[in-house]
Amino acid sequence: MICDTHILRRRVRVLLGMFVVGLVLSGSTAVPIQAEPDFLHGMFGEAEGSWCPRVAGWISFVHQGVTEASDRYPFMFCGTDWLAFGHIVIAVAFIGPLRDPVRNIRVIEWGMVTCVLVIPAAMVCGPIGGILFGWWLIDCSFDVVGIVPLYLACGYTQRILAIGDK
Questions:
Q1: Which residue of 10, 60, 91, 159 has the fewest C-beta atoms within 10 A of its own C-beta?
Q2: Range of the structural domain that residue 110 is part of
Q3: Is 93 exposed, middle or buried, given 0-12, 13-18 or 19+ CB atoms closer than 10 A?
Q4: How far apart are CA 135 and CA 141, in angstroms?
Q5: What are the CB-based long-range contacts (under 8 Å, 24+) for 1-4?
Q6: Highest mean pLDDT (candidates 19-28, 58-67, 121-130, 145-154)
Q7: Which of 37, 123, 31, 41 is nearest to 81 (CA)?
Q8: In the chain, how many domains are there?
């Protein structure tokens, strides 16, 4: 029994560790706000003659907006560091489950709920913000992928509870 719970706890820690790393990495993409459109614009080019004109047109539009805002109104990007900070704070919440998943199973469940809530939020906010349908599907994909390790970690934690190892 002890061996079984030890293996389950290790699995939970690996899964939660992957989730935490994913959170930090996805949050850190909010900081280099100018570099990302520059890179994508260089990759896709202008809409005319591009291998994917609709996406290239959108990226050109975003690139122009970010460049102009950065040049003329740099204060517009002050929120992106807070977005990254928010991801880090959420990652910190998972320290408890990393240490003791049984006592902190509610944090794992909360993480799954937040992953699910991103989808309706994107469905409402995406069109309001003029975001392309495909782009907010990409945003949602992070949470669709993110819920998998949380779901597995929750299942393993419930198995630990069922065995009776607290």
A1: 10
A2: 2-31+79-163
A3: middle
A4: 10
A5: 1/163, 1/164, 1/165, 2/165, 4/163
A6: 145-154
A7: 31
A8: 1
Higher pLDDT, 7 or 39: 7
Residue 36: both structure tokens together: 């990302």
Q: Is the pTM of this model over 0.85?
A: no
The C-alpha atoms of residue 150 and residue 158 are separated, in whole angstroms, by: 12
Which of 141, 127, 129 has its CA nearest to residue 65?
129
Task: At 19, list the tokens.
Answer: 């989730």
- At 49, which amino acid appears? G
The whole-angstrom separation of Cα 35 and Cα 38 is 5
Segment among 58-67, 85-94, 150-159 with least mean pLDDT: 58-67
**Would 44 be classed as within a structural domain?**
no
Structure tokens at 11: 């699995």
